[in-house]
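Why should sequence recovery work at all? Because a backbone constrains its sequence more than one might expect. Tight turns favour small or flexible residues, buried strands favour hydrophobic ones, and helices have their own preferences. The token representation captures these environments compactly. In the example below, the structure is given first.
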């Protein structure tokens, strides 16, 4: 097994940019810059892995939509059945008279999940959607 050795490195950046960064990590509650930078790097590496599409990940697709919109609910159901092997669970919450929040728990190859998420989020009537995933193996 590879040893997890800590390495320090220096980063030069614009003072104004660093101020904004410090403000952001303070709001998020990070104890220090190092922890915040580590999280950013992990996320950047993960997002970059999207390109190969072969890594198996798990996560959620969050969708906000107006269920009154034409055939939206039917179309959404149809797409989800096409990806039944990748969908572990779906939770639907009625936010108010018009708006729904749906959280779909997914697992599978990144390329497939992105395809599923793109198809759902691009439907007319969906006003916000986001796919968030985590790798299954470190
Ligand atoms: Ni609803």
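From this structural description, the recovered sequence reads:
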């Amino acid at each position: 097994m590879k040893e997890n050795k800590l390495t320090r490195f220096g980063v030069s950046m614009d003072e104004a940019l660093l101020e904004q960064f410090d403000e952001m990590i303070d709001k998020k509650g990070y104890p220090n810059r190092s922890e915040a930078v580590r999280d950013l790097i992990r996320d950047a590496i993960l997002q970059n892995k999207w390109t190969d599409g072969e890594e198996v990940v798990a996560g959620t697709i969050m969708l906000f939509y107006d269920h009154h919109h034409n055939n939206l609910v039917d179309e959404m159901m149809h797409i989800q059945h096409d990806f039944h092997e990748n969908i572990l669970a779906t939770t639907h919450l009625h936010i108010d008279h018009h708006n729904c929040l749906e959280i779909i728990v997914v697992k599978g190859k990144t390329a497939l999940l992105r395809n599923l998420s793109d198809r759902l989020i691009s439907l007319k009537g969906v006003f916000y959607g986001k796919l968030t995933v985590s790798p299954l193996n470190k």
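A few observations help interpret the result. The longest strand covers residues 56-66.
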